[in-house]
Design a protein that fits this description.
Elongation Factor Tu (Ef-tu), domain 3; six-stranded antiparallel barrel; single chain; four-stranded antiparallel β-sheet
């Protein structure tokens, strides 16, 4: 049997344990970042010894007691390239020259990579030579003029009664033949120019140019390596403008936004910059009550430019939080 003293010790131990559990619960429950009525609410917790007996002080935190958290109305956003292009060839060949390196900044139209096109260029030269039909054309035109003169002379003689109808018909036939030959030469010239143009387009396929302004992120083929039409050889990304993807914002806040509206963003401890809403997801997440939207931020290459793939602060205007 347990004596009165043992019972008193046991009850005192339980009371102490419950007291300690109560203080731990208060501290754990004090750190909350949630959504109440569609607005972001932040509560900071103090250490157990910073506000009396295990509570949270009413005067806020300072010094080492403060926590690094976002303020009310500031949400995290993730930066991403506004464009990303996989660049490849639609023919097979061997890489002859790579004109860029990883990290190179390029403009639309800059040459990125060239395949060995020596054979195609030789055929292009042949096609170019065939486009020159000037001699054949001059000869055909001269024959037409001669045939016209002979026909006219014979026709005049026939009208004077000093030539036969058969000779007139013969000269007329010669004129028609000369005119047909001239038309044939002109047609051959057009065909030769079309063949030259087609060969020129084939040669152009051996050189790949940048489709956008951007930065070379990856190169998968080097000089001497084979390429085909199934795999890209380079990746280009554009970070100007920069996209900022914002998720987990209460739907009641997002529904007040509009495309074209400006919102401030900041990377780290940098200055706030104005970004523009360029997309609002028409479908929200029913389980979390949140919705996604995207911002577009001018991001020229200078000391204040922001990298893609980092987290930034997105400050939603207080007017959108009030009464949401």
């Amino acid at each position: 049997m347990m004596g009165p003293k043992s019972k008193h010790v046991k009850l005192a131990g339980r009371a102490g344990m419950l007291s300690r559990l109560g203080r731990v619960s208060l501290v754990m429950g004090a750190v909350l970042v949630g959504v109440w009525g569609g607005s972001s609410v932040v509560v900071l917790a103090q250490s157990a010894g910073g506000a009396g007996a295990g509570g949270v002080g009413s005067g806020g935190l300072s010094g080492s007691q403060s926590s690094s958290v976002r303020s009310v109305g500031v949400f995290p956003g993730t930066t991403a390239p506004s464009q990303s292009r996989q660049v490849g060839f639609d023919i097979r060949g061997v890489v002859a020259e790579v004109k860029v390196e990883r990290g190179s900044r390029v403009k639309a139209g800059d040459v990125l990579m060239r395949l060995d096109d020596s054979e195609e260029r030789a055929q292009l030269e042949v096609a170019l030579l065939r486009t020159d039909v000037s001699k054949q054309l001059a000869e055909a035109e001269a024959r037409v003029k001669l045939a016209e003169v002979q026909y006219g002379r014979e026709k005049a003689n026939f009208d004077k009664g000093v030539s036969s109808e058969g000779l007139v018909q013969e000269r007329e036939a010669e004129l028609l033949v000369a005119q047909a030959r001239l038309a044939q030469v002109e047609q051959e010239g057009r065909i030769a120019r079309a063949q030259h143009f087609a060969q020129l387009k084939r040669v152009e396929k051996y050189t790949r140019q940048s489709p956008i302004d951007g930065i070379i992120r990856e190169i998968t083929r080097r000089e001497g390596e084979n390429v085909d039409e199934t795999r890209p050889v380079l990746e280009i990304v554009s970070v100007d403008p920069l996209y900022i993807e914002v998720r987990l914002v209460p739907n009641d806040v997002v529904r007040k936004l509009s495309v074209g509206q400006t919102i401030d963003v900041r990377y780290g401890s940098g200055t706030w910059k104005s970004a523009t809403v360029n997309f609002i997801d028409p479908v929200g997440d029913a389980r979390s009550g949140t919705r996604y939207f995207r911002l577009e931020l001018p991001n020229p290459d200078n000391a204040e430019s922001i990298d893609a793939g980092v987290t930034v602060d997105v400050r939603v205007p207080e007017s959108l939080l009030a009464g949401s």
